[in-house]
Amino acid sequence: MKPVASRFFFPFLLQISVLILRISLCNSSYLIYGEALSKSILFFEGQRSGYLPKDQRMNWRGHSGLGDGSTVNADLTGGYYDAGDNVKFGFPMAFTTTMLAWSVIEFGEMMPPAELRNALVAIRWSTDYLLKAVAQPDRIVVQVGEPMNDHNCWERPEDMDTARTVYTVSAPNPASDVAGETAAALAASSMALRSSDPGYSDTLLRTATRVFEFADAYRGAYSDNSDIREAACPYYCDFDGYQDELLWGAAWLRRASGGENYLDYIQNNGKTLGADENINEFGWDNKHAGLNVLVSKEVVEDNLYNLQSYKASADSFMCTLIPDSSYSHMEYTPGGLIFRPGGSNLQHSTTITFLLLVYAKYLQQSSTSINCGSVSVGPTFLRQMAKRQVDYILGENPNGMSYMVGYSDRYPQRIHHRGSSLPSVRDHPQFIGCKEGSVYFNSSGQNPNVLVGAVVGGPGEDDVYDDDRADFRKSEPTTYINAPFVGVLAYFSANPNPS
User: Fold this and answer.
1) pLDDT at res. 280
2) Which residue positions in the chain have pLDDT lower than 70?
3) Who's near 404: CB < 8 A, 6+ residues apart?
4) How open is the CA angle 166-182-192, to the nearest 5 degrees?
5) pLDDT tens across 234-254, in order?
6) 253 within 8 A of 262, measured Cβ to Cβ
7) What ranges in 108-242 are assigned the alpha helix state H?
8) Residue 416 catalytic?
9) What keywords were assigned to this record (predicted)?
């Protein structure tokens, strides 16, 4: 009989231990989410290009890209490297900026003062660069750096000796996508920075207005331009069309300025620009789901029913996420992570999680819910869904691994990132050439520099994650994965047990 008793007793003890652990985690949730918030913002310091300030905290990084723009007699220093490479791609950088600003607009008041300051610094590091990119009317710098050469090298940004080619689009050639997103970024940032620097905020809004006029007057995708296509593609082609960025830019200008002309634009151009098409996507290339959530604020809070089609599309998108809804068609991994086919899956999880929280906020403020067929969904349910995604990313997953670098005791050690994987300039001041870095790329050793706060692409549809530097789809961090996560973590740091 003893073996039988033991068979039941030890699983019982295990269940009790897991319960105690969960209770402990609940009691320390504020510290857990607060730490993750701090690190998610710190990550952006590791992506900086340009001359680094004295208060740079990611101190294994050094100055880089100090000659950017010199080939066209312009100052194009600053901004962010998008991921683990050394190119400055304007399209994802602008989207990153919009999402950082939206994070502050919706959830900044929930951030500790020090982290709010850090978030605003992260936004301004980008907007300072974006202002340079659109300094000339009807012209936009869409990229700095020749990507083929860059991707054929494995070298630190401080050492890079590849061509820093400047790619620009000038009227009448179109760049509605990059210009529209840049207008959105500047408009959203003008809101985020308004209380701390009103003058700078005004500059951002004025510039956003001008850039949007350029985007709207000369319609088309920037990557259709033969002078740009080979540099932008396949990295950041406009695969989904430029129309969503026009509506997105107008929606942000409406929110930032309150202008009736932008309200009319959103209302009158919704059908022609495909506002109700492909509504279940949100990311650097497709703004539809985010657009519909953003515009819905005016419907649920201000009763602007002429925008009801946007609200209906936002409701429809939320219903696709509900597993018990008859409208559900979102894929989840066995461990519960939102999954989209293709690489860098956590970019989908973080953006969708952000939208869940923002929409829950709008519904809460208007005391409304969503009808998903046989299921009625309210703010609490959406927040609980969001929490499941956050907790998965931070370690409650089949691998027991945090997908945020530097968070918890187990996280990716071999991320696909040049600066992180090569010896720092402080430890190894000697130049490391283009191909000399290959030995570090091919090493099975851990990265010597911890890119704290970086969220990697994450596991596949089977929840499997191999800590492999070469598997960039899973192991590469990006700014646009982290940017929406900042707002998400701000919410949960203040509300660890949402209701």
Assistant:
1) 87
2) 1-31
3) 36, 39, 40, 393, 394, 411, 453, 454, 455
4) 130
5) 999 999 999 999 999 999 999
6) yes
7) 113-133, 147-151, 176-192, 198-217, 226-232
8) yes
9) Carbohydrate metabolism, Cellulose degradation, Glycosidase, Hydrolase, Polysaccharide degradation
In the DSSP assignment, the letter for residue 53 is P
pLDDT at position 498: 84
476 in catalytic set: yes
Sign of CA dihedral 85, 88, 94, 97: positive
Q: Are 158 and 428 in contact (CB under 8 A)?
A: no
Q: What are phi and psi of 239, to 5 degrees?
A: -85, -25
HEC secondary structure over 242-275: CHHHHHHHHHHHHHHHCCHHHHHHHHHHCCCCCC
Q: Are 191 and 105 in contact (CB under 8 A)?
A: yes
Is 348 noted as a catalytic residue in this protein? no
Helix axes 346-366, 90-107, angle to 10 degrees: 30
> Which residue(s) pair with 366 in the sheet?
none
CA dihedral 53, 74, 235, 443 (to 10 degrees): -40
Burial class for 147, CB neighbours closer than 10 Å (0-12, 13-18, 19+): buried
- Choose the catalytic residue: 288, 348, 416, 417: 416
Tokens representing residue 97 in the block: 């900026």
Angstrom distance (rounded) from CA 452 to CA 407: 8
Tokens read off for 430: 């000697």
* Residue 341, token pair as written in the block: 């086919």
Q: What is the pLDDT of residues 454-473, one digit of tens each?
A: 999 999 999 999 999 999 99
Single out the residue of 393, 390, 416, 414 nearest to residue 404, CA to CA.
Answer: 393
| Residue for token pair 């494995």 | 154
Find tokens 């495909």 and name the residue: 274
